[in-house]
Design the sequence.
């Protein structure tokens, strides 16, 4: 299976997890390194969501580095090595940003950078957790959570405001993951987990209206376009590479134009487990 097919399966997995439908495909919005370097030269070399808003048009480009796509296309039975976890999580974060941005734009609801970051952090946990769950390893959730959240450190050189925003986003996602683990994962309640995750997604649990006042203040940031939405962190030997710029509030009608600059992508042989998506459909109750 090619990396692009694996990326489509990752998008289907996230749509299944959150119970949403989206016709736009992240793979059709991939841009190459030259575009990233021209539009957002300071963005991560692994993953970045590029956004430009003008009137009623929203232009989106998703950059994923070639090493990320190569790891994404590896077989589902491959061990969760440093390289695989790094690549998979970078791709999951990028697709999460892409889907959540579209979800909020189509609902004509504003979205902040903090929301995108927190949702991306939670979605990384959920995507890896479900890959482990389907092979009978849901018991690895505490260690996964520890690696993703407790051992994460931001790279040096980030402005204080960005560090604080990432700290809050990580703390919010960690608290949510911990609660989901205790209530659903530890008890093997996949149906309950999906119901709650979908409820939180529709609610916009990381939006300003649902956050403590201190976090809501962190959420508000100056609008600057174009924007690279990503972060850069190392997680105890596991690097989740991405780095953030500033995200605009989206409250307009969205027009998505697939990039014409997408280069030919990897065709690395591999299999991204579609068993997870099938298991979600068969195990979940109506949201």
Sequence:
């Amino acid at each position: 299976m090619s990396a692009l097919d694996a990326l489509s399966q990752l998008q289907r997995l996230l749509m299944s997890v959150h119970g949403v439908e989206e016709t736009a495909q992240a793979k059709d919005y991939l841009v190459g390194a030259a575009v990233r370097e021209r539009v957002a030269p300071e963005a991560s070399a692994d993953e970045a969501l590029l956004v430009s808003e003008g009137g009623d048009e929203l232009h989106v480009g998703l950059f994923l580095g070639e090493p990320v796509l190569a790891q994404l296309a590896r077989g589902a039975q491959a061990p969760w090595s440093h390289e695989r976890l790094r690549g998979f999580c970078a791709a999951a974060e990028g697709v999460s940003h892409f889907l959540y941005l579209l979800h909020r734009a189509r609902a004509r609801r504003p979205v902040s950078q903090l929301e995108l970051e927190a949702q991306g952090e939670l979605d990384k946990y959920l995507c890896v957790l479900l890959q482990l769950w389907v092979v009978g390893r849901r018991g690895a959730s505490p260690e996964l959570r520890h690696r993703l959240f407790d051992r994460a450190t931001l790279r040096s050189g980030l402005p204080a405001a960005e560090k604080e925003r990432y700290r809050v986003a990580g703390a919010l996602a960690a608290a949510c993951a911990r609660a989901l683990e205790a209530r659903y994962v530890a008890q093997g309640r996949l149906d309950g987990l999906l119901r709650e995750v979908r409820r939180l997604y529709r609610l916009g649990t990381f939006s300003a209206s649902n956050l403590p006042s201190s976090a809501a203040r962190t959420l508000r940031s100056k609008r600057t376009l174009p924007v690279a939405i990503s972060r850069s962190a190392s997680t105890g030997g596991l690097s989740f590479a991405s780095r953030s710029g500033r995200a605009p509030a989206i409250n307009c009608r969205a027009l998505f134009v697939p990039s014409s600059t997408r280069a030919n992508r990897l065709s690395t042989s591999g299999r991204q487990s579609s068993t997870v998506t099938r298991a979600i459909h068969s195990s979940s109750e109506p949201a």
